[in-house]
C-alpha cells in the first residue's frame, strides 16, 4: 500500500490531490462509516481537472465499478454508501452494488438538470442510491422536516385532516422523494463550480448516516461540500480530488458555510419553521395542540448542533 501526503488537512479531516482509485487503495478495510460519491456523469462536461467526461458507456461503467469496489471494501459492517448520479447510470450501478451491499432506497431528489428534450419526459430528478453493508445501518437518524406552509399566510399546504393534533412536534417523516433541496445558484457561491451540491443535501446525508466522530469518505471532492458538512458537524473526513484548489479556498473562508448550516439546522426537526410560526401568528392560525410546547421552547432554546468554534487549518 503506498503512502500519500494530504494536500490539505484540518483537525478532523484530510484531502488528497489524487486519482480516486489510487487514493481509495490507501484506505484501510472496513474503517469508513459513511461513503458518498458524486462522480462525473460522462455527459461531456468540462472540468477544471481536465478529465475526459465523454467516454464509451461500457468504459464509464467499468471505471465506476473500480472505485465502487474500493468504497465497498473500506465500508464498516453497518456502514452506509450513497451514490449520486443520473437515473440512467444509477440503474446499472445500483444493480452492481446490489451484488455487494444491501439496498435501502432510491431517493429521488427533485432538481431540474437539463432543458426539456423532444420526445422525452423533462429530466427533473437525480437518483441518490442508498446502500448499507450487512442487514441494517449501524447509524440512522433521518431529519424530520417542517410541514410545508403557504409563504403568505403560513397555513399548511396539505390537508392533514384529523391527524393534525397528533403530529410529531419534531416534524414530519423524511420520505424518499426530496423536494426541498435548492439548486446552488446563490451569488455568493458563483465562483464554485456548476457541479457543487447543496450544503443542505450533504448535511442531510451526513447527519442521517453518521455521528460526531464517525469517518466520512468522498473520493470526488469537487468544491468540498461533503467535507464542509462533515467538518462543521464534528465528523472526521477523508477524500480525494484531482484539483483541490476550490476545496482549500473554501476551507479558508468557511464562515458563509457555517452561517448557512446554522440556518439549515434551525429549520429542521421541528413542525413549523420560525418564519411560518410568525406568519401563522400574524394571520391568526391556531397551532396543533401537540405543538404548543415546542412553540414555547423555540423562543429560548437553540436547535442548532453546528460546531461554531474556529477550526484549525494545516496544509
Ligand atoms: C460532480 S463533481 C463533485 C462535486 C462535489 N460533490 C461538490 O459538491 O462540490 C466531480 C468531481 O470529481 C473529480 N474527479 C473526476 N475524476 C476523478 C478522479 N479520477 N479522481 C478524483 N477526482 C476525480 C472532478 O474533478 C470533479 O471535481
From TrEMBL:
Database matches in PROSITE patterns: N6_MTASE
Domain DNA methylase N-4/N-6: 32-243
InterPro entries: DNA_methylase_N4/N6, DNA_methylase_N6_adenine_CS, N4/N6-MTase_EcoPI_Mod-like, SAM-dependent_MTases_sf
E.C. no: 2.1.1.72
The keyword S-adenosyl-L-methionine appears for this protein: yes
GO molecular function: DNA binding; N-methyltransferase activity; site-specific DNA-methyltransferase (adenine-specific) activity
Listed GO biological process terms: methylation
Catalysed reactions listed for this entry: a 2'-deoxyadenosine in DNA + S-adenosyl-L-methionine = an N(6)-methyl-2'-deoxyadenosine in DNA + S-adenosyl-L-homocysteine + H(+)
Keyword check for S-adenosyl-L-methionine: yes
Keyword line: Methyltransferase, S-adenosyl-L-methionine, Transferase
Class of the enzyme per the UniProt entry, highest EC level: transferase
Protein name: site-specific DNA-methyltransferase (adenine-specific)
Species per Swiss-Prot/TrEMBL record: Paracidobacterium acidisoli
